[in-house]
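job 3f2a | input accepted
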Amino acid sequence: MSGRTHARACPERTCVGCRERAAKTGLLRIVAIKGECVPDSRGTLPGRGAYVHPALVCLDQAVRRRAFTRALRAPGALDTKALRRYVEQTIVAEQATP
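job 3f2a | predicted structure (98 res):
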């Protein structure tokens, strides 16, 4: 045996809100569709993606810095209302489960 382990490396991405590196599985992928930021929880939507922690703090920082517009290379401002609702629902669901 060569001594190599067969454990797979966990891909890392950078949160556009807090700029911290984290495992891809712990972040939420965001894509731009028709001028709107859309959450891509399965990671299968086509197009360029940006990653953010599913927390309101990181989401607010990303919106304040216009990080989604830059990361997704969008020509204008992106609507983040649907994204905010999704993150809020995710937080409530996580708190409800023991």
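job 3f2a | Residues 15 and 52 are 4 Å apart (CA to CA).
job 3f2a | closed
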